[in-house]
From TrEMBL:
Domain DED: 22-100
Keywords: Apoptosis, Cytoplasm, Phosphoprotein, Sugar transport, Transport
Domain of life: Eukaryota
Name of protein: Astrocytic phosphoprotein PEA-15
Species this chain originates from: Chauna torquata
Listed SUPFAM superfamilies: DEATH domain (SSF47986)
Amino acid sequence: QAGGGTAEAGPLVTRVAPAMAEYRSLLEELAQNITAEDLEQLKSACKEDIPSGESEAIATSHHWFAFLEKHSKLDKDNLSYIEHIFEISRRPDLLTMVVQYRTQVLKISEEDEVDTKLTRIPSAKKYKGEPRAP
């Protein structure tokens, strides 16, 4: 009878698109490399996007990923937000995993991303040292 259960589980697994499975395993791998302290750091890196009450409720990296997905900050083909968070949180190890996924699974190379990076980063640098206008 145990064999029968496995056969039933088979079709469920195949229904998940390969890209989605790859994405889930990426998140799982990232989650395994995020400690409780890391999570606090990551949450504080994106505090503008997480209301403080909700931030306290996020206790695990899985929960954090789910929150980001719910708020359209993270998707199987949209990883730029977490790349940015890992970058400012000084987590090159996590960033490397995401970049590998992006280049191998999504087939998006750094060159394809240059346009978005150019628009994102200089604007941030431009305002960094200037006092805010009243």
